[in-house]
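COMPLEX REQUEST
Ligand: N-carbamoyl-L-aspartate
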Amino acid sequence: MTKPEITALLDLGDDYLQRYQDGTPIKKVLKDRTQINLFFEDSTRTRTSFELAGKRLGADVINMIVSSSSIKKGETLIDTAMTLNAMRPSALVVRHSASGAAALLAQKVTCSVLNAGDGSHEHPTQALLDALTIRRRKGQIEGQIVAICGDILHSRVARSNIHLLNTMGARVRVIAPPTLMPPFAENLGVSVHHDMREGIADADVVMMLRLQTERMQGAFVPSTSEYFHYYGLDAKKLAHAKDDALIMHPGPMNRGVEIDTVVADDIDRSAIQDQVETGVAIRMACLDALCNGPLP
Ligand code: NCD
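STATUS: Structure written out below.
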């Protein structure tokens, strides 16, 4: 997306968040529309967040449980999507372990498709909610030094954040052991670090990522305790960032692996709960924009 498109979605999401927090009535712009959530991978916050977003806008929301659907009987992804499409939903929200799954479905169906995470490729609404969280807490995205630390190699959250933050003018750094860094990561327009203290020095935002063990075959780190020693965020390492650095994590967190409890629960600096709240508002903005026409 372009900078004006991103800004328009962030503005709309900000408006929805403000209205919800103030208790101002929200127009049911998805009344009489159907939204189907099709999640092939486990999810707590993203699925609930999309469900709540649709419901707050008045949509009829259906959650497909993959384990009890015909997918288990051997139906292909495309056939499942075509079947659901024939029921005339306005939006299909898809999470799948294969990179490109959402883009493939978007070519086959007539409704709007929202990518809720495709393999290790992208997680666009996560990047949008992270951007809005940063903008609300820091005032702007442009010029912020954002250090993304952890399993960059397998992370769709990292990839989407890198694209979005670069487009918005932030300075992005990635930090990981060599085994968890994508080859030629610098080609993504980021500075690459293997030493955490160096990577988070003077950072405005420190974004921690989970080890995506479900996408690993074999061992990528010697042990989780050694990983925490070098790459886990604790108060000592955080001291290298700016004094008011924001701590972020998309969840689910593995405490004691990539983040220390004291840091994760720091009520002044941790934005982790804000990210969850902002997520619902951003997904309302995305559903509204996709189902009701282009943004201004
Ligand atoms: C992320 C995901 O699923 O990619 N979580 C999320 O959507 N909140 C990150 C993760 O699973 O670690």
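REMARKS: Residues 84 and 148 are 37 Å apart (CA to CA). The first helix runs from residue 3 to 22.
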